Amino acid sequence: MEKKLHEAMNEQIKNELYSAYLYLSMAAWCEEKNFPGIAHWLKVQAKEEVSHAMKFFDFMVDVGAKIQLLAIEKPPSDFSSVTDIFEKTLEHEKKVTSLINNLVDLAKKANDNPATLMLQWFVNEQVEEEKNALHILETLKMIKDQGPALVMLDRELAKREG
Ligand code: FEO
Description:
mainly alpha, Ferritin, binds MU-OXO-diiron
């Protein structure tokens, strides 16, 4: 695998695991503040992020690219509200989208067709990831700080499968 693409892919394993860590940290905050449904949604999200890291891991194994696991930084643990959590979620997913786009650019420049094809899955996934975060954030903006509506949202997000 071309050097820059190889390095960026190793980094992306870490970035996806950091995403899992971030959502798990948000879930811990929600558990503490008694939003078990939102915590559940975030825990499912954390598991998805681990599966994203594994997609990169498995792809690198398949093409014989050496895997180097990097240190995962500490995520924030203090949040001001549920809205703050979903603002940060959307912001984070936008950042991940730009990292994926950068990987696509590197794969194309390297004429690496298998990597380009594999990354298409992530291009589509990021559309979903941003859409989900934006949808919840817009609901939260409508709710503002109304307790009963927030309890309803908590119950709704408790239904996420995974
Ligand atoms: Fe792995 Fe949330 O993107």
